[in-house]
Amino acid sequence: MGKTKEPFYKKWWFWIVVIIIFGAYVGATSEEQNTSTEPTKVEQTAESKEEIKDYQEQSKEDISQILPSTKKPEEPVTKLPEEPTKTEPVNQTTTTQTTEEKTMEEKNPLEQIPGILIVPVVEHVDGDTIKVKIDGVVETIRFLLIDTPETVHPSKPVQPFGPEASEFTKKMTLGKNVGLEFDVSQRDKYGRLLAYVYVEDGRMLNEMLLAEGLARVAYVYPPNVKYVDRFREIQKKAQLEKKGIWSIEDYAAQEQEQKQEQQSAQPPSTGSGSGSLVISDKNLSDEYVEIKNTGSTSVNLSGWILLSVRGNQTYSFPNYELESGASVRVWSGPKVKENPSGLIWTSKYIWNNDGDPAQLVDPNGKVVSSME
Question: Which of 27, 49, 105, 288 is deepest in the core (most CB within 10 A)?
């Protein structure tokens, strides 16, 4: 008999193989278990982090409530308002400028001077004479209480500083508005309006000319002496500083001689007395005023003025002799084309039918007769 074959499970190597296979199986199972549980741990970790973050934020809020003086309140450092502030100043500046411009317009220096008449200057004559338009009528304005060196006098040469005075007045007035302040008598014997003249910035031109040495105090005839003392003080200062005409060595002596002549000479009065002429009649619709000589002698009307008070328009009488007891009518309006008897003023309407006082002014500037 042959030898019996031993079963394979009794072999030693069989159990080694079994052990190896079993160990491999156990290892694989452990890995699967570990892999299946790992995501849970990650999720738990993530959840834990979120909870920690929420807790930290909640803690910050709680702390900020308890401690308000942390860095957070320092953040309002006006950085938020900075952006609107950069754009707003443009509008605010524009608004401010517009308001200031309106205020300046409302506070025109000339309008702040009481009792003056604001009018446009239409022509410059010389240093102390301009022409303005008043209610559509061109009037010659002679500056009160001063005299500038001559530049356009028909019988006198151009005097030193005359052109400078003329240019100064032209620069300050031509094409601009001026304010006129009248004294007691409004007109001279030539029919010119006598006034203190204010320029656009509110200064008086009479004083400015004196201060620059471009004029002297002159033609001081009462009652038009409102500012004479002030004018003399300004002139005295210009003399001490040797400005303008006062820089000429002998000008002061010449001025003193002329001053004495002017003080001793009064404006000539024509006729037998201003009281002899009166306004005897006035017709507003027919546009005439009648002047009568009630005196015992004739009166030459040269230098006399007829004034429409409401329109501030004047008629200068020509060289016309009005006999004692005689009358003469001064005509205006369309009826002058019919060649009425008397003196012709203008073909334009002068008198206001709703009421317009008439005044008769003698060569001294005195109103001697009026009619409402």
Answer: 288
Residue 156, φ and ψ in degrees, nearest 5: -125, 145
**52-64 per-residue burial string, b: 16 or more CB within 10 A, e: under 16:** eeeeeeeeeeeee
How far apart are alpha carbons 362 and 359 in whole angstroms? Answer: 10
pLDDT tens per residue, range 83-139: 545 455 545 555 555 555 555 556 789 999 999 999 999 999 999 999 999 999 999
Cβ–Cβ < 8 Å for 45, 38: no
- Candidates 142, 187, 216, 329; catalytic one: 142
Cis peptide before 223 (omega within 30 of 0): yes
Percent of the chain with pLDDT over 70: 69
Q: Could you tell me which of 116, 127, 122, 151 has the C-alpha nearest to residue 139? A: 122
Q: Is 310 labeled as catalytic in the residue annotation?
A: no
Answer for the pair 364, 186: CB distance below 8 angstroms, yes or no: no
